[in-house]
Amino acid sequence: MKIVLPALLSFLVCRVRAQAGVPPTTLHHRSYFYVGGQYVTQGNSTIMEGAMYVERLAPERVTQPFPLLILHGLAMTGTNFLNTPDGRQGWGDFFLSKGYEIYLIDQPVRARSPFQAGIDGPQSTFTTFSVESLFTATERFKLWPQATLHTQWPGNGSMGDPVFDAFYASTVPSLVSQEETSVKMKNAGPALLDKIGPVILMVHSQAGFLGWVLGDSRPDLVKSIVALEPSGPPFVNVILPPVGPARPFGLTEIPITYDPPVSSPEDLKREVVDIGNSSLFTCFQQAAPARKLINLVNIPTLVVTSETGFHAVYDSCTVNYLQQAGIGVEHIKLEDVGLHGNGHMMFMEKNSIEIAGLVEQWIAKTNTK
């Protein structure tokens, strides 16, 4: 019987990894590149600013029609989706195993996308209190009603626990200004899409508004959007500081294309809407007649919300705003499909692969051509 060399190599790699206690992975190729940088004068010479790091992972055999482009959230990097802090299979490997080519980025001015002193704005860092109270041990801090239901983080979620320490070590400084973040992504993101072609765009948390910016910039190159607890709700920050006015263009910090056109935030008249849980914040929608997000209306969109994360308070408001603006949105609340106890970092939690399977089913049925 003839043994095919790649299959033998894959078997040996998997065996060595198993003996070392490393979870199985899909045989793949890895490379990286940068997009979006521009030269600026500094002193008597020049430097490059705004360049965005992109990591490409491709399974040995790509079987899916479109790659998956993943944008991480605040204080995070593309490593969020490689494996979990306790060493289990990550979403990156899961989607590789399904035949998807994957692109992971570090947002501009973040981690491997270099910060340039004197050019880029100030940065901030998540404290251990922020991570524990918002992500990993919300059941102890009880900052919103659903927080007490959190059970899926792999560990006790507190400083000193090995899983927490591994996760916290991966957090990095982020730009304070979300407007600056948006502008830099609008410069680098379309360049990436032009380079790699049509994609399925997956965004998490703070990257939510960046997803709408990219979809608006290149609607022909974004086949669908998967928004994992995307930034919101419209026009305000709640729970996650700084609480107060935010996203003056509804769901974004910078203008995107409305029909009729919007020349300034004042053009977007708003009204209060009751979508439940409204005692915790004021939920806004557009005053009638609502303008349409004309470049996003043909992009199928999925919003996924955990049972216990702070987005459980207000993601329905974000979904309502998208629907009112003409976007076809499917909203999956994990508790409604039998997945309980998850928080904001659902793709790292104990049942993360079950959630990945749910997302992949939606992608597969939505992106057939």
Automatic annotation (TrEMBL):
Entry keyword set: Signal
Signal peptide: 1-18
InterPro entries: AB_hydrolase_fold (IPR029058), Carboxylesterase_BioH (IPR050228)
Keyword match Signal: yes
Membrane spanning stretches: none
Gene3D superfamilies linked: alpha/beta hydrolase
Cited CDD domains: Esterase_713_like-2
Protein name: Alpha/beta-hydrolase
